[in-house]
Amino acid sequence: MVEPVFDHWTLPAALRAEVERELAGDEPIVWLGQPDARRATLRTWPIVAFAVPWTGFAVFWIAGAAGFKMPTFQGGAGLLPLFGVPFVLIGLAMLTSPLWSRRSARRTVYAITDRRAVIFERTRRGRRVRSFPVTGFGQVTRTERADGSGDLILHVRTRKDADGDRHVERVGFYGIPKVREVERLLRDVEELNRTIPRPDASGAPA
């Protein structure tokens, strides 16, 4: 029997309620956690570093196109500064990426139950839930940092875009504390499901 181990981070009540609504009534939670919002924010700093000169150049270009004076937005030449506005907006989006990344991390929940690993994410289209049966894991990759936190990669998917370029998507638990302990729990649940077959819908062992 795998004893439930809940992470020391306190999960907000609203998120906990969403998790409990999603899981089956007879599906106990073995582990529950969230990504480290601080580390998620730090990963965006290269984007911010790129955004500073990008945005600065875009603003400078708009100022130059306006003759370094308040644009009138009248006539062909007066409308020229408007072409730089989308680039400024892109720059602002990159500059604020740490805020969006932190917000996303706080609205993401990772869970291990007695039969699957689950990732709950809040997207623009609503709540997205991705499940991975513990009996279907291949090679789980663990990245561990000096403080014991790290990442667990559960699934790797390769796809091609419309241009034929190859993209690799790594799905898993990112920025979780005590990553080695979480991996052990995952393996314990996997082994338990292999040794104790679960009944199917008819009540017969699977």
What does this structure look like?
This protein has 206 residues and is of the alpha+beta class. Helix content is 39%, strand content 25%. It folds into two domains: 13-35 and 108-194, Roll (PH-domain like), CATH 2.30.29.30; 45-100. A hairpin with a 2-residue loop joins strand 3 and strand 4. The longest helix is centred in the first third of the chain and has 21 residues, at 45-65.
Quick recap:
This protein has about 210 residues and is of the alpha+beta class. It contains seven helices and seven strands; from the N terminus they run H-E-H-H-H-H-H-E-E-E-E-E-E-H. Strands 1-2-3-4 form a four-stranded antiparallel sheet. A three-stranded antiparallel sheet has the order 5-6-7.
